[in-house]
Amino acid sequence: MAVLLAIAVLGILIVVHEAGHFLAARLQNIHVNRFSIGFGPVIWKYQGPKTEYALRGFPLGGFVGFPDDDPESNIPDSDPDLMRNRPVLDRAIVISAGVIANLIFAYFLLVAQVGIVGVPDFNYQPGVRVPAVATTVSSAAATAGIQAGDVIIAIDGRPLDASKTATTSLVKTIQDSPNQPLKMEILRDGQKVALEVTPELGRDGQGRIGVQLSPNGEEVRNRAKNIFEAFTLGASEFQRLIDLTLKGFGQLINNFGETAGQISGPVKIVDIGAKIASDNIGNLFPFAAIISINLAIINILPLPALDGGQLAFLLVEGLRGKPLPAKIQENVMQTGLVLLLGLGIFLVIRDTANLDVVRSLLQQQ
Description:
By secondary structure, this protein is an alpha+beta fold. Among the domains are: 2-17 and 81-115 and 270-356, no CATH class; 121-221, Pdz3 Domain. It has helices at 2-26, 88-116, 140-144, 166-175, 227-254, 256-259, 266-279, 284-300, 307-320, 326-353, 356-364; strands spanning 34-47, 52-65, 119-133, 151-155, 158-159, 182-188, 191-197, 200-201, 207-208, 211-222. Strand 1 and strand 2 (52-65) form a beta hairpin. Helix 1 crosses helix 8 and helix 2 packs antiparallel against helix 8 (284-300). The longest helix is centred in the first third of the chain and has 29 residues, at 88-116. Mean pLDDT is 83; it is low at 357-365.
């Protein structure tokens, strides 16, 4: 069920994107003859009065087709409602509408999230929790008597307050104190325990005691009190996710060699979405919003076969006063489409091979 939900999320986002192009064209009375989800061979299709709707074999995106270059179309080449005969601005609206639709959809997903399931937050309590302790003989924490489940509430007489900085403050104190005894006050089963631990000198020159540390407290969800607050909180979440996504793309560009391996295809996205849905189905709201924002940003990049590439052609046309030769545009777009599909197939194969279930099957052979 979780996998099906994740696939449904990805499919809905593709439909939203293509619906943006479709509606922007129809609202301007521009002829549209195809609305397809996926590429390649047709699995299912329905012929409407003006448009063919289809599902295709490779679910790596979708497209809205126009009769401009369709040899079977009976629409005269001089028809003013053909896409190519419309002004640059009209065509730019159609091409950019998919990106706009994804952004609008992401915003309303976040509004629904804050109104229905709430925005996740953390209710901090004093101290830092110890989820696990290394059991090796050389573990300074184990030697000192620290146990999993303990809460460190003070170190060297300095209380660790209820804040998100408490954990980083404790870690820094430990790292800065190799071979120096530290007095800790521990809360264990409601009782305070005084311990002394001496951080070991690690290979990096910093102190370590052999524990996992995490903030002390519990996750809470803040729901909007009314519809107006839902729109306001949704806007804040939308801005936060936009900023995070742009920073992620910036890191990808600046450190491409190190981060290129983190690029994921549809299989990995579905895998992540399935795990999120199995943990908490409410988390599908921000997951879908993040994917929708990523689809928007990727599509607006000025690359062949993407919306941004077509907008780049329109920009050149607007500056020149006439479009680039059709042959050049066709060759660039076809090359870009082949590269895009090749990348998509590569990511599908790689991500499929890295799935836990596939790895488990390979290890059994």
